[in-house]
Write the C-alpha cells for this entry.
Amino acid sequence: MKIFTVAITGASGAVYGVRLTDELLQQGHYVHLLISEAGWQVFREELLLDTSDRQTCLEGLFHSTDHLAVHGLQDFKAPVASGSYYTDGMIVIPCSMGTLSKIANGMSGNLIERAADVHLKEKRSLLLVPRETPLNGIHLENLWKAEKNGSWIIPAMPGFYHLPETKDDLINFVVGKVLDALHVNHALFTRWGQKK
C-alpha cells in the first residue's frame, strides 16, 4: 500500500480528481484528500452533486472510503502538513492557476499549498494537473517555475490514438497518465501498440 495526497482545486475538471482518488482507493492505497472551497463549487456545477452534507457527498463518490482521510484546508495538524510524514506523492488535480501561482512562489496559506511545499522541500513527487485554456504569460511562467523546482506538469490533455469512444475514455486517459507518473499500475487506457 502506498500513501498519496490528492488535492482538488477550483479549476474545471473535478471529475479527474474524483476518478484518480477512486482508482487509488480501489487499488488499496491510502489517500489524504484535500478539496478547496472552489473545488466544492465545481462538484456542484460540473458533477451536479449535493454538497450541503460534504461527508455524505464523498461517501457516495467512491467505491470505498476505508483508506481515505479528508482534511480541512486550515487543518495544519494534518499529517501531510509535515515533512516528517512520508507520502509517495501528491497530485493537485485539477490545479487552478491560483493554486499553481501559490505553489510556484512558495506561498502556503492553506493545507493544499503547505502539503505541496512539503513535497517540494522533501524532494517527493508533486504532480500538477492544470486544466485551463488559453494560458497567459503569467500561467506559463508559473508552470515553468513549478517544474524547475521539482513539480511534474501533466496537463489535462487527453490523447486520441487509443480511439476514445466515451467521455470516460478521455478522463481515464488523463488519470492513467498521472498514475504512470506515480508508478502505479492500471488498465485505464489502451497503450500505443496494444490492441483494444
